[in-house]
Input
Amino acid sequence: MNNTYKSAGVDKEEGYKTVDKIKSAVAETHNKNVLNNLGSFGAFYEIGGYKNPVLVSGTDGVGTKLKIALDTKKYDSIGVDCFAMCANDILCHGAKPLFFLDYLACGKLDADVAAEIVLGMVNACKDNECALIGGETAEMPGMYQPGDYDVAGFCVGIVEKDQIIDGSKIKTGDKIIALPSSGFHSNGFSLVRKIFPNFEEEFEGKPLYETLLVPTKLYYKDVFKLKENVEISGIAHITGGGLIENVPRIIPNGLCAKIDTSKIQIPNVMLELEKRGNIERMEMFGTFNMGVGMVVVVDESLAEKALSLIEDAYLVGEIVENEEKIQLI
Output
């Protein structure tokens, strides 16, 4: 028998099937700025209407949360996670997401699985008024086992140079506002899987995996509602490392984010993980978002207005003078 690419484990036809399944849905994310369709070697996006535009980009994956999706054969939310982890990062600088590209790698491609993952990205892109303009699906037998997938993404946004949010305007007395998370988002899942080995067990009346796979919350609409109505001094996306590692990234030297942990609304599933795993509270705060997906810093005089704009936002602290950039009390 002659050797073929298929005999080496790569099925090009399955790749074509994937494209067929996603092509029309992906096209629905496009706007007048997208100048070409899927199939080109590069994706074109025209920029207009800005005086002094700055491009802001971010790339990320979903980590071992993917393992839960693969084990339970629930693939629809993972694409949302991939997009959210990238888009939420660039939002921290006041950037509007323009376009997104994805990378999907696997041992043996299943067009239905790949399409379900990408369709999750499509839905997230639509929610964020962002175009999915390209991607890569890599079938790599020998690198990945059949049934294994890895997902990553890349998002580019835009902001006027004089509207960049970078934390430099944060000052003493500013208030810290929490925007709730939808759960674990896409961080800490190596520890989650260690403490919760049985994803099928019942938790709050449904299989645990349903709670674990709730997708990362998209903050585009909330952040831009705030940005249009109040001056934002700083925004931090609470990902791996939790509040302890992410908040200090936006705090100027000599200042400190003093956060009252008694005000934080910790999800029940995180409290259960803490209890079952006998995990210290500070370890939890240094690993998970603990119910806070983003923090927004605003002037004290603007805090009440900011809170009135976002239904579930709440105050968690203030900026004080201190050499430590964060204090959890």
User: Anything to note?
Assistant: The domain at 5-160 is CATH 3.30.1330.10 (60s Ribosomal Protein L30; Chain: A;). The radius of gyration is 21 Å. The chain has two domains: 5-160, 174-328.
